[in-house]
């Protein structure tokens, strides 16, 4: 008999990962709720409380939101997703429950020089998807990655820092904690106080990342649609590479780009996390309606 495990917000994401693995192996039908709960070492009440707390969804709605074919339904409106001009401060009904981002791009020469001359702080704080590891310049967030049981904080930091090997980094958890809290708390998402980010990459990469910021929460688009949008219709593969190099995960929503068939393809921080983020965002959308 499975031991009933204590559950706290700090351990929620580990349990969510286990739930996604279970659903991958057993399918999205959770009609047998007691079996689902036992597989996670939880009571039915704990299972329902977990999903309500983590994403505001019932176990059934959560299972549908993280199903492998969920992204197909998000693609229904893909033709118009990138055609809608989105500016910080624009209060359209489709973006009222979205994370507002103000960005500026560093000159590409800084990227080519490996970030030489840049001073950044970095730090760690909890998020719904494991520990968030963030780098930031005086202009805003420059990198966001994740640490968990498989990826240590140091490994996640090195993953980000190696993108700008000549930059100077100083750890300061207190400096980055407000950035992380704002990024992952929908109650703090406001056009009046956007999350400030700085994009450091090649001209092409920055163009792709700017396009990702136009994809609303609860929707998705394809690599080919992004390529068309930036005027490079034959560059879907290059777009995929640029999406994979996006240093500011979640905030610059590379997780909302999928294959033409709706397949989740890859994600730098793991496809299970991509599924979890899309499921969590389904809860954000549900709460807004």
UniProtKB/TrEMBL annotation:
GO terms for biological process: methylation. It holds the Pfam family HTH_18. It catalyses: a 4-O-methyl-thymidine in DNA + L-cysteinyl-[protein] = a thymidine in DNA + S-methyl-L-cysteinyl-[protein]; a 6-O-methyl-2'-deoxyguanosine in DNA + L-cysteinyl-[protein] = S-methyl-L-cysteinyl-[protein] + a 2'-deoxyguanosine in DNA. Signal peptide: none annotated. Gene3D superfamilies: Homeodomain-like, Methylated DNA-protein cysteine methyltransferase domain, Winged helix-like DNA-binding domain superfamily/Winged helix DNA-binding domain. Keywords: DNA damage, DNA repair, Methyltransferase, Transferase. Residues 17-114 form the HTH araC/xylS-type domain. GO terms for molecular function: methyltransferase activity. CDD domains: ATase (cd06445). InterPro entries: HTH_AraC (IPR018060), MethylDNA_cys_MeTrfase_AS (IPR001497), MethylDNA_cys_MeTrfase_DNA-bd (IPR014048), MethylDNA_cys_MeTrfase_DNAb (IPR036217), MGMT_N_sf (IPR036631), WH-like_DNA-bd_sf (IPR036388). PANTHER family: METHYLATED-DNA--PROTEIN-CYSTEINE METHYLTRANSFERASE. This is 6-O-methylguanine DNA methyltransferase.
